[in-house]
Write a structure and sequence with these properties.
alpha+beta, A middle domain of Talin 1, Beta-Lactamase, 4 domains, six-stranded antiparallel β-sheet, three-stranded antiparallel β-sheet, 11 strands, 66% helix
């Protein structure tokens, strides 16, 4: 059974039924209590009525006893007072009985009231008979009194007793009826309570079944569906058809599950796209980091960015040395090539998205450039509708801007902004590395040139020959060296300088071969070695020995040269130190210049040494020297 009512209405209905059952049980209890209370009241009133009847009979019996005692003892004065008191009590109780008629129904009350009135009348007659008896006794008419006692008084007494008995019987009947009603009410209450309990059980069972069917089961179904969603099972959920709060919750949950499924799929796609972008950025970073020239690096960045992400246009601006202009360094397509060739530039303080990014150091993202006041249109890119300008920052300073444009409005998202921000950072690092590499290359080239000059100076032939850097060995059985042979040595030396490794050549004018080898020191040719022999061939071992010896010769020669330079430098420093110490020992200007001239002349083996101190204030002559007609102070000739 399906109830098309809400859960709140079901709960209200169940609560109302329970309240009705409680009210029914309470009503039955109140009715039962009222019935019992009425029976108790009847019983109490009946007891009082019976007690009054009994008291009235007792008082009347006392009156009769006093009359009999008076007639027997014939002492009127003694019994008259007691008889008077008993008659007064009898009349009082008779009046009380008449004032409080007993009965549960109006008929019973009327009947008992009639009996009470009859008793009242009989009581009056009894009072008259007793009064008459007292009067007869006072007149000593004992026989008449006895006759009156046993005739009229007995008759009235019998009728009075019958009335009292009837009243007592009516009271007992009323009490019995009240008790019977109480018993019957108890049985009915028991029956009603059994029925109420049965109804409560039925209502509870029905309510429970309805709750289980309309609340618990749907809620369990919702819990199962929710547990399925927690395991990332976003398959379609069929909502419940019941028209209540749970049905509404089920339909809302189904809509939420559909939204979660779409969101999860979208999120997976976004994560996949972001991962792909990050991988692309990482790959692109590896590629650009391998490029060590700024121009090639920037061209590769813009081309790969457009190719991998499908942007409408990509170009890079670099700030010039004056930091006043942004100059296009690389761009994609014909427009990029044309702007690069023309040196297209934008002032840093211009009203432009690119300039704003350079000034602020923040990514500038515009979904619709036509609605932006500081957008600077480019006639070479008429299709631009949205744009992102990401600053290229190196060591906290903006050095350029990566500008990306799309031909659709709002075609960028947060992922594009993060991607281009990261890519701009990578470009900044790559640009810094490339510039550092170029500087290092320039410095290295300068160092190589300086080293080459130094090597040329250090291994100058004249200085090396002066130090004994040439030697000729002739075996005792070899022929004397003729002028032609000397020319052949010179020729082979020049030939060896053109080689890169030991070479075997024919001796030309004699049998045998010559082994020629250049002498290298750190890729610099510093000499040659040639060995002439009557052998017809040179073995590989011979060539290897020569190569090894040549290498060691170059290293040892360089060590000796360095040692000689060090020794000469030490000698120069020693000489300078000795001359300086002697000059510092001078006590006058004249002694100072004399010491300087003498020591320099002696140490340098000079014929003359002149030292002059002072400034010539005359104009210089045509040869750049000042004219001086007299001897200056502080001059010394040696």
């Amino acid at each position: 059974m399906r109830l098309n009512i809400s859960v709140a209405q079901r709960l209200i209905l169940s609560f109302s039924l329970m309240v009705l059952l409680v009210l029914l049980a309470s009503g039955i209890g109140v009715w039962y209590a009222t019935t019992i209370q009425r029976a108790v009241d009847v019983a109490q009133d009946g007891v009082v009525q019976v007690e009054q009847v009994a008291d009235l009979q007792f008082v009347w019996s006392n009156v009769a006893a006093n009359v009999d005692n008076m007639l027997l003892t014939r002492q009127v004065s003694l019994n008259e007072q007691a008889l008077t008191r008993e008659l007064d009590e009898f009349n009082r109780q008779l009046a009380t009985l008449n004032d409080n008629p007993f009965g549960q129904t109006p008929q019973a009350v009327a009947q008992n009231q009639q009996i009470s009135q009859n008793l009242q009348l009989l009581g009056s007659q009894l009072n008259q008979v007793v009064t008459k008896l007292v009067a007869l006794a006072k007149n000593r008419r004992w026989a008449t009194a006895q006759q009156l006692r046993h005739t009229e008084l007995v008759s009235f007494q019998r009728r009075f007793d019958e009335g009292l008995d009837q009243l007592a019987q009516n009271t007992q009947s009323e009490m019995a009826e009240a008790v019977a009603q109480a018993v019957q009410a108890q049985q009915r209450v028991r029956t009603y309570w059994f029925i109420t309990i049965a109804l409560a059980v039925v209502v509870g069972v029905v309510s429970s079944m309805l709750s289980i069917q309309s609340i618990a089961r749907p809620v369990r179904t919702l819990i199962q569906q929710a547990q399925r969603v927690t395991t990332r099972d976003f398959s379609s959920i069929t909502p419940l058809t019941q028209q209540d709060e749970i049905g509404e919750l089920s339909r809302a949950f189904a809509l939420m599950t559909d939204w979660l499924r779409e969101s999860y799929q979208t999120l997976e796609q976004r994560v996949f796209e972001r991962t792909r972008r990050l991988e692309t950025v990482a790959t692109l970073s590896e590629r650009v980091n391998a490029i060590l020239h700024v121009e090639d690096l920037l061209v590769e960045v813009v081309n790969q960015t457009q190719h991998n992400f499908g942007y409408y246009h990509v170009h890079i601006y670099l700030i010039d040395d004056t930091r006043q202009k942004l100059v296009v360094a690389a761009g994609t397509g014909q427009a990029g090539a044309e702007m690069t060739a023309k040196g297209h530039s934008i002032a840093v303080n211009a009203s432009s998205l690119v300039a704003r990014a350079a000034r602020t150091g923040q990514v500038v993202w515009v979904d619709d450039v036509l609605e932006t006041g500081d957008w600077l249109p480019n006639p070479l890119l008429p299709g631009t509708r949205s744009e992102i300008a990401a600053p290229i920052v190196v060591d906290g300073q903006v050095v350029g801007v990566l500008d990306v444009q799309e031909d659709e409005v709002a075609n960028f998202d947060e992922g594009d902004a993060n991607l281009l921000r990261s890519l701009a950072s990578q470009v900044g690092v790559a640009v810094r590395n490339a510039r550092l590499f170029e500087r290092v290359e320039v410095a290295l080239a300068d160092a190589h040139r300086a080293q080459a000059r130094y090597m040329d100076q250090a291994w100058d032939r004249s200085s090396i020959d002066h130090q004994g850097g040439k030697s000729l060995y002739t075996s005792p059985d070899a022929p004397l060296i003729s002028p032609a042979k000397q020319q052949q040595f010179e020729k082979f030396s020049k030939q060896a300088l053109t080689q890169f490794e030991p070479t075997v050549v024919s001796a030309e004018d004699e049998a045998g071969q010559a082994l020629l080898s250049p002498i290298y020191l750190r890729d610099k040719k510093i000499g040659v070695m040639q060995i002439h022999s009557q052998k017809q061939t040179w073995s590989d071992d011979d060539v290897a020995i020569v190569q090894a010896v040549v290498d060691q010769l170059a290293q040892t020669a360089d060590n000796l040269r360095l040692f000689e330079e060090t020794r000469n430098r030490a000698g120069r420093e020693q000489t300078i130190r000795e001359i300086t110490e002697k000059m510092r020992a001078a006590t006058s200007m004249e002694k100072l210049v004399q010491t300087a001239a003498q020591e320099l002349g002696k140490r340098l083996s000079a014929g003359h040494a002149v030292v002059e101190l002072g400034v010539d204030h005359q104009k210089p002559n045509s040869n750049g020297r000042s004219q001086n007609n007299g001897k200056e102070n502080g001059r010394s000739d040696e």
